[in-house]
Amino acid sequence: LQPDQEGFGFDDFKHYMASKAAAVNEALDRALPLRHPERLHESMRYSLLAGGKRVRPVLAIAACELVGGDEAAAAPVACAVELVHAMSLVHDDLPCMDDDALRRGRPANHVAFGVSTALLAGDALLALAFEHVARGCTGGGSVPAERALRAVAELGNAVGAEGLAAGQVVDLASEGAAVGLATLEYIHVHKTARLLEAAAVCGAIVGGGTDEEVESIRRYARCIGLLFQVVDDVLDVTRASEQLGKTAGKDLAADKATYPKLMGIDGARAYAAELVASAEAELDWFDANRAAPLRHLARFIAYRQN
Ligand code: GRG
Predict the structure, then answer these.
(1) Which residue spans adopt a coiled-coil conformation according to this UniProt entry (predicted)?
(2) How far, in Å, is the centroid of ligand 1 from the Cα of 221?
(3) Which of 117, 173, 262, 279 has a 20 to 30 Å separation from 143 between CA atoms?
(4) pLDDT tens-digit profile of 67-76?
């Protein structure tokens, strides 16, 4: 990263991310105390409180602050998007989905607690997300009920048959099939970008953003959601060539569509550059200081090395 002109450098950004993530971790811990039935709550807490970069909640808080809201107004939706994310990881790892035994370097939820508890824990995390927004925004908080309702609608759309569930079903149906660029993009827009988009949009809504501001933030977040996947695919190629003679990267070894496979490595890099430029352009008309965390987040996703 080049030093920037906004007086908010990369160290400030790292500190911003870390301090917001710490506040979110505390809020999530409070939102989900260990109570009866213990096994269900243990399973929920296992996946909610064990690491994770907290990118979605930080996006919600940064978008809220961008439009003049404060961290307290964003707190319920910030927790909600991480609850939804945790649910999606638990369900994604199930034997009937991706059938992964490991998540974040630990046994996946269903390996630790059994499939039926993991399934119910995912369902309960999802339900708690919506309960948390409804209670947090309306229970004497600083957010008008009308904004909380809009956030609930946004989040519901992002999770359901036009969002995560749609991306997952198309992804599962594409296994072993020849996947073109349009299908690859559909999967990533729905499985990954849509929840990042909803996080930022919900933050902007509860922060009191105008319709134009909310839509600009939506386009920003959609770009960085796709950018996340394109860069991931490019890094897999880089890692694989670094390991030449050892083992190939997982996506190259597996028969799976990726941006470098469909566009070539230079094409994928050019697409990433286009996405980060489009994301940053959406921030141009906001106050530069308030936009600085989101500008850094876009660059961080674009230029990360692992
Ligand atoms: C049950 C309605 C319903 C929907 C669930 C299982 C499913 C449908 C969707 C899968 C969604 C999924 C797991 C997408 C992958 C998203 C992704 C890029 C995860 C990694 O995100 P990071 O890097 O992870 O932010 P950390 O660990 O940092 O939190």
Answers:
(1) none
(2) 16
(3) 279
(4) 999 999 999 9
